[in-house]
Amino acid sequence: MNGTNCMNEKDRNSKDIPKLARHWLNSGRFFRWTSTLEENKSFGELNIFCIQKGDVKKPAILMIHGYPTSSFDFMELFNLLSTDYFVCALDTPGYGFSDKPRNGYKYSIEDDARLVDYYIKELLKFRKLTLVTHDKGNSVGLALLELYKNQDRYAIGHLIITNGNIYLPLANLTGFQKILLNRLTGPVVTKFVTGKMLANGLNRATHNVKESREKVRSNAFILGYQNGGQIQHDIIQYLNQRKQNEVRWLENLKNSNVPAALVWGEDDKIAPTKVSDYVWDNYLKVRTAKSNYWIIPKANHYVQNDRPEILSKLIRQSFGEELNFQAISKEEKPYSKSS
Length: 339
Hints:
single chain; alpha/beta; Rossmann fold; 9-stranded mixed β-sheet; 14 helices; 9 strands
């Protein structure tokens, strides 16, 4: 696929960039994309970061990140899966190494879905892929299903949905999320938010297996890229969009013929299993398309970081590989709630 480097060589290899963040940046590319929203017309083209790893001739997997992080969340899965699959991800506007416009730019789940659709059709040019989504990315994936049913250029072979508050009435939003979301407190507080603050807070509250110091430093750098902390009030508005559209997006899932699986970290306090239980009982269990529901013990909100080996096995299962959990202790072995 064609792309640009966006940053000059000196900036990309600066010693100020932590090692893992620099490696992730230098392993990816940038492409130009223009928002589909009339409100964003004056902002013109944005630089969108994307990354691919593996043999393009092998089965494809596309991963969509959540809030407030980026494609960097999938580093471990990239390493585990790219030997046998072509693994891809991108940073939606406002996240990761993609541009983070402000001063009235409208961040939108459905705009993100159109970006993903464009990325698949025009840049990756996949005929078939498996989609793995997390957190905010779940809503992007569900919105994408609405676009997907009206096209015939690619097929989604499987949709794997991991921890995220896709049904907000059962969510446990943190106090900090509520402050950032609020139209009065959010614009004030977001001025003081830094990437380091976000990375340290996420490591404390949303990971059972604490990230290495180098990983946290790299995540802090990526979160703070283009002063990303200072647009948190803007980008967290996706929760209001989810509140308005979550039933319609979940109906997309219910009515879709795409095989789907919920894979949930059991210890998530923000998006607890009562969210995934509700979605399973009301939208997946009742549909005709193939559906599964897995719980991963001792995993928190970032299940892809706490238990990447187990999640990678469940992704492999969607391609027909046989599961082998013999080396995993009984206490950590995933279990199915599909029956």
